[in-house]
Amino acid sequence: MDGNGRWAQKRSLPRLLGHREGYKTLRSVLLYASERGIRYLTVYAFSAENWRRPKDEVDGLMKLIERAARDELRVMHRNGVRVRVAGRMDELPSGLRQALEDGMATTAGNTGITFTLAINYGGRAEIVDAMKKIVGEGIPADQIDEETVAAHLYNPDHPEPDLMIRTAGEMRWSNFLLWQSAYSELYVTEKTWPEFDDKELDRAIEAFAGRTRKFGALA
Ligand code: IPE
Ligand code: MG
């Protein structure tokens, strides 16, 4: 979710304080999305490309996410949230991976909103990983179709996103859910992620509700 850095910079604060503020936003947006009856919320917390940032920022983010995963577990569980992840988990620091696995195990049976943390996630990497699984299973080439690929993504049981929200005015996809977003509606807001709030989510949903979706067909 973009704009944590800019939010901090504008206030002459260190970037990590922007990320901490972004965490607060996520906590309240998750609760609100759940109240509004949204079934799936997937957030792009750390991309496979974000390792290119300075070590201090990467370490700070990893610690922040690990602490958040542990601190929020009880309240998420109480609210019926089901936690999932998307990304290459084996490349994460082991403490963080453990926290995420604990979160998934604890909430696996919940029936409320599915909250998916995309972390060390890349859309191309996900497709590559799907290819590897398909080849590994020995599926013959002439039996591979779009359903085969979709069934080998990180969370094959998740529906494709109806709505994708980009913050801080970014007009690019940044390697997020490339396969799944083929027919997603896009909503871009100038607000940075720490400024994003319930009202802005309402606006995004309202904009979405006004769209006509044709999936390539005629209206
Ligand atoms: C958060 O926003 C994205 C993360 C990787 C956590 P940014 O850190 O990209 O913020 P800007 O783009 O510098 O404003
Ligand atoms: Mg950015």
Verbal overview:
- There is one protein chain.
- This protein is α/β, with parallel strands linked by helices and 219 residues long.
- The chain has one domain (4-209): Undecaprenyl pyrophosphate synthetase, CATH 3.40.1180.10.
- 44% of the residues lie in helices and 13% in strands.
- It is built from seven helices and five strands.
- The chain has helices at residues 4-10, 15-35, 55-78, 94-107, 123-136, 146-150, 198-209, and strands at 40-47, 82-86, 114-121, 163-166, 185-188.
- A three-stranded parallel β-sheet has the order 1-3-2, with helices on both faces. The protein has a two-stranded parallel sheet with strand order 4-5.
- Helix 1 packs across helix 2 and helix 3 packs parallel to helix 4.
- The structure holds 3-methylbut-3-enyl trihydrogen diphosphate and magnesium ion.
- Residues 1-6, 19, 46, 50, 61, 168 line the site of 3-methylbut-3-enyl trihydrogen diphosphate.
